[in-house]
Amino acid sequence: MKFAHLSDTHLGYRQYGLIEREDDFYNVFNEIVDKIIDERVDFVIHSGDLFEIAKPSPNALLIFQEGLMKIKESGIPFFAIAGNHDTILRQNALPPQILFKKLGLTLISPNNPIVNSSFLRENDIFIGGTPYISKSQTPLLKSLLNDLSKKSEGFSKRILVAHQGIDKYIPFDYELEISDIPTSFNYYAMGHVHNRIIDDFGQGKLVYPGSTEIWRSNEAIDYKKNGKGFYIVDTSENDAENRFDVDPINIELPREFISKNIEYGKLDSELNSLGSYISSLNNKPILNITIEKGNFNTSDVYKKLNNILSKITLMFRPTFRNEELIIEERYIKDNTSLEPKDLLVESLKSFDNEDISNLAVDLLGSLSKDKFEDSQKIADLFYEEYFGQYETEFKKIMKQESKNKKDDKNKLNSKNKSHSKNKSNNENKSNHKNINNNNSNENIKDSDEKFKQTTIDFK
Ligand SMILES: [Mn+2]
């Protein structure tokens, strides 16, 4: 028996605002669908971020619908979880995958964490999983994983599906430490990390198939090294330790991402050879070009680059390492594009919280289109999500605080005027004491933690 494992297809992503890039993501997906059918797999697992956003465009939905229909017509079941991109902040909101239930997609959700199919039962296979769960809810995530581990007991083949970061693979952006994960499964069908990873873990293999297209330009490095595509997992040819056999199926991406540093002194000759290399390519590439060393007039160099490169690249993204621009470079780094969205996310990095960046990006989107009602709704939902449950506690504290102030005032009034310098100190101390006494300081801390926990480099 064998299955296909893929993830992070991000359908509908219009990278750099370019429709050609949106099409690239679709073309790669279509190619993957054909290969899945060629491989005659018994089922497919998609580990989240099927779509770029939780409310995909009709185009993105249509591309997926067509692909899924082909897979269904070949008699192949499709199991999926929602990733962080497929999830709306609001609780109980449905991910777009739910639309495709009648076309053969089984959504693994909090309500249906286990896939119930006669084929799986006949072959003694357990598939269980959870949609993406944010870092502030790691205790919930851990207990769900442990429940699934218990429920998988007694099955001969046990598969866990999840869309999370693990500290071992992304040390600065994870929800799970590797030691949090139950070791009882034979296959960990992971999503979220965009590089390809195959590791031995627990009683089998832990696998991130990675993104199917280059979603951030720095993913080009892993593409060159490990390729992109999906995995075919063969469960019948186990080795002595019952580890499944995992084979990569590579897809050649339609467009190159080129990263080039050029010294200003060699600008003309380097541009010449770069130009002839680009002319040899089938499709116009995305070019990240850095001009460095030496003093030069940025706008003159930009004009020259634009003359030569604008026609032969789909997009070129220049960086100028000129002493005059050092201050700007603090904001515009190598892997950051000039899109307002990216700059906004970059400038909010200190919050270290993906939800805040998402909020800002959402608000930018709606406010820049004068959609004030939508903006209000977005802000209200965010407030509700973060503070709804703490509101009562806050009110209590505020009430207590105003009472303290009154008390302090009364005390002060009864004292000599020369002591008034200490007023604010006394006030602070007594406030702290009261907050501790009514035990709500932990709740405040939790809501504070929520802001700090999730990291911004979301995938
Ligand atoms: Mn992703």
Automatic annotation (TrEMBL):
<feature type="region of interest" description="Disordered">
    <location>
        <begin position="401"/>
        <end position="459"/>
    </location>
</feature>
<feature type="domain" description="Calcineurin-like phosphoesterase">
    <location>
        <begin position="1"/>
        <end position="195"/>
    </location>
</feature>
<keyword id="KW-0479">Metal-binding</keyword>
<feature type="binding site">
    <location>
        <position position="49"/>
    </location>
    <ligand>
        <name>Mn(2+) 1</name>
    </ligand>
</feature>
<feature type="active site" description="Proton donor">
    <location>
        <position position="85"/>
    </location>
</feature>
<keyword id="KW-0269">Exonuclease</keyword>
<keyword id="KW-0378">Hydrolase</keyword>
<dbReference type="GO" id="GO:0004519">
    <property type="term" value="F:endonuclease activity"/>
</dbReference>
<feature type="compositionally biased region" description="Basic and acidic residues">
    <location>
        <begin position="401"/>
        <end position="411"/>
    </location>
</feature>
<dbReference type="InterPro" id="IPR050535">
    <property type="entry name" value="DNA_Repair-Maintenance_Comp"/>
</dbReference>
<comment type="function">
    <text>Part of the Rad50/Mre11 complex, which is involved in the early steps of DNA double-strand break (DSB) repair. The complex may facilitate opening of the processed DNA ends to aid in the recruitment of HerA and NurA. Mre11 binds to DSB ends and has both double-stranded 3'-5' exonuclease activity and single-stranded endonuclease activity.</text>
</comment>
<keyword id="KW-0234">DNA repair</keyword>
<dbReference type="InterPro" id="IPR029052">
    <property type="entry name" value="Metallo-depent_PP-like"/>
</dbReference>
<keyword id="KW-0464">Manganese</keyword>
<comment type="subunit">
    <text>Homodimer. Forms a heterotetramer composed of two Mre11 subunits and two Rad50 subunits.</text>
</comment>
<dbReference type="GO" id="GO:0008408">
    <property type="term" value="F:3'-5' exonuclease activity"/>
</dbReference>
<comment type="similarity">
    <text>Belongs to the MRE11/RAD32 family.</text>
</comment>
<feature type="compositionally biased region" description="Basic residues">
    <location>
        <begin position="412"/>
        <end position="422"/>
    </location>
</feature>
<dbReference type="InterPro" id="IPR032885">
    <property type="entry name" value="Mre11_archaea-type"/>
</dbReference>
<dbReference type="GO" id="GO:0006302">
    <property type="term" value="P:double-strand break repair"/>
</dbReference>
<keyword id="KW-0255">Endonuclease</keyword>
<feature type="binding site">
    <location>
        <position position="10"/>
    </location>
    <ligand>
        <name>Mn(2+) 1</name>
    </ligand>
</feature>
<feature type="binding site">
    <location>
        <position position="192"/>
    </location>
    <ligand>
        <name>Mn(2+) 2</name>
    </ligand>
</feature>
<feature type="compositionally biased region" description="Low complexity">
    <location>
        <begin position="431"/>
        <end position="442"/>
    </location>
</feature>
<dbReference type="GO" id="GO:0030145">
    <property type="term" value="F:manganese ion binding"/>
</dbReference>
<dbReference type="GO" id="GO:0045027">
    <property type="term" value="F:DNA end binding"/>
</dbReference>
<dbReference type="Pfam" id="PF00149">
    <property type="entry name" value="Metallophos"/>
</dbReference>
<dbReference type="InterPro" id="IPR041796">
    <property type="entry name" value="Mre11_N"/>
</dbReference>
<keyword id="KW-0540">Nuclease</keyword>
<feature type="binding site">
    <location>
        <position position="163"/>
    </location>
    <ligand>
        <name>Mn(2+) 2</name>
    </ligand>
</feature>
<keyword id="KW-0227">DNA damage</keyword>
<feature type="compositionally biased region" description="Basic and acidic residues">
    <location>
        <begin position="443"/>
        <end position="459"/>
    </location>
</feature>
<feature type="binding site">
    <location>
        <position position="84"/>
    </location>
    <ligand>
        <name>Mn(2+) 2</name>
    </ligand>
</feature>
<feature type="binding site">
    <location>
        <position position="194"/>
    </location>
    <ligand>
        <name>Mn(2+) 1</name>
    </ligand>
</feature>
<feature type="binding site">
    <location>
        <position position="49"/>
    </location>
    <ligand>
        <name>Mn(2+) 2</name>
    </ligand>
</feature>
<dbReference type="InterPro" id="IPR004843">
    <property type="entry name" value="Calcineurin-like_PHP"/>
</dbReference>
<protein>
    <recommendedName>
        <fullName>DNA double-strand break repair protein Mre11</fullName>
        <ecNumber>3.1.-.-</ecNumber>
    </recommendedName>
</protein>
<dbReference type="GO" id="GO:0000403">
    <property type="term" value="F:Y-form DNA binding"/>
</dbReference>
<feature type="binding site">
    <location>
        <position position="8"/>
    </location>
    <ligand>
        <name>Mn(2+) 1</name>
    </ligand>
</feature>
